[in-house]
Amino acid sequence: MKINQAELYTTAGGYLPSFFKMSVETGESFLDIQKLTEETASVYFHEYMHYIQDVSTFHGLSNMIRMGEYLHYCKKIIKDGDTVFEVPIVVESLDPGVKVSAQIGNILNGSSHNIVGPVEIEKIDFHQTGVVSSEGADIPEIIITYNNGKLYRFGAWAVNESMAYIGEKKFFPASPLAPTLPYHAAELITRKLFPEFALDKLNIFALCDIALMSAEPGPTYYKHLIKLRDSNFECKDPKEIYKFFESAIFEYQDWNLNCIQMLSTLGQIARIYLKGYFPLEDYIANVNWMDHIIDHAVGLRNRNISFPLDILLHGSFYNNPELDLTMKNIGGPLQLNSNGQASFIIIEKLADKMIQPDLNWVISDILKQIMGSSNPCGMKAFCKASASKQNIPDFTNPLCDISPWFRAYNDLDCSMTRVLKMWELDKKIPVNVNQSFFF
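RE: above sequence
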């Protein structure tokens, strides 16, 4: 069993959940998004919508907690072990709680591969997986059978992408057609089960957003859709869907919490894990930045739970006051173009802080190496562009491609070295049991 740490990705861009980094395949600068071409802006908005999902929904915050739990456990066993350690560190060998958490995360995420071309849904099944959570709940999943018996697991991945794609198409109807699955998955299910509801795609967008505000986005989307259908729900305004489900109560330990209380609770737990990434005072600005993002994302939901929908209801990506308000509150992730050039939305209250969002990105790269990825360091183009911008010599070298962790062992300064030193792992040596060379 491997934790699914994959990027929400299309060929045009990508967002890295839990680590605050997005990319768009363009040479354009993001310093002024009002100047973006429609081609670039459509991808930019799609990826920014993933950022909103990441920091303001149950699923996003729960994913941060699962990633943090896994990474902190791996850090401990590496630090306490021998100088040379084997990767991948497989979940089966870990603490049982970490193993179950990883299993649950992978089930809830569902299928992540793309399906191109016509998809004819034959049936949709809701069933229990037999994997039991720490609270004793049997984790459910939704299985789509399509095109003569092929199977697709409708989970959080499909809900995320369906929502972001509907948002992209609302502002940019001429943007390229995405693969049928996962990008049209929620729409296809809705057409099958409640075709009247699917007439307005903003209904689907809203229900996706609501489903992500639950522990089980795929099954929740399915159950909520059935409930709306069986209630003969007639939707004249997508915001009515949020009101229909606003009384939902969530059980957490011995408490019964409403949606915002539950979101706030998850946010507090996520912040503990995120803070653990930066144990040194030198990096307190990153901790303050992440705290601010989560606090203000929860605040946006508390003031207006349907704020992502309101961004779309404005009607345009450009000069959008709702999008502007969102960015003022929660800023944005590290934003990279295809030239490795980075930009960053500065939050006014944190303007004087030395925030280093590239360190969050490098933590995800370290995680990939712990999981056994043989890919080169993903930051090489960024580091080259940064050196050029600062008019300093290029500090990348062949180790970036074949053994990025070994840069820290050789005390070669870079973002990865700084993080590994902070974690006291710079003198450890990972060896991939499936490869014949060092990382």
